[in-house]
Amino acid sequence: MPTIDRTTLAAYHDTSGARIRKTARYVGPASYVNPGGDAFTPGNLGMSRIDVIIFTPAWDGADAFRVLIWDRVTQTIRWFVPNTDAEVANAVNLSGFSAFFEAIGI
């Protein structure tokens, strides 16, 4: 049986209309900041709080992929290279990568 922590989100069970859901395409920054990540706040989506963001893998349209996570504490999107598990280096141009996401919050 999985371990589920229901205390980390404001509302474990979502009912229709209780949360805002935003879906969009996210394009990487021209110069990635490491340490830190790419700033991404609820205001970027017209929301007051983000509970969770779910990303597809970011793809460059050819053969490279990157994994994205939203750091809730620092309100940044952090980029990782999947075959090394390393965070993308500082000042790397990621503008050729894009991913789709769903953000849930209020």
Brief rundown of the structure:
By secondary structure, this protein is mainly β. Helices cover 0% and strands 39% of the residues.
Task: Output the structural class.
Answer: mainly beta
Silhouette: globular
Strand proportion: 35-45%
Strand elements, count: 8
Indicate the radius of gyration in whole angstroms: 15 Å
The unreliable regions are none
Give the count of helical stretches. Answer: 0
Arithmetic mean of pLDDT: 87
* Helix content range: under 10%
From the N-terminal CA to the C-terminal CA, the straight-line distance is: 30 Å
State the domain count.
1
Largest sheet: 5 strands, antiparallel
**What is the helix/strand order?**
EEEEEEEE
Report on this model:
The termini are far apart. It is built from no helices and eight strands. It is mostly beta strands and 106 residues long. The model has no long low-confidence stretch (mean pLDDT 87). The strands form two sheets. Strands 2, 4, 5, 6 and 7 form a five-stranded antiparallel sheet that branches. Strands 1-8-3 form a three-stranded antiparallel sheet, with no helix packed on it. It has one domain (20-105). Strand 5 and strand 6 form a beta hairpin.
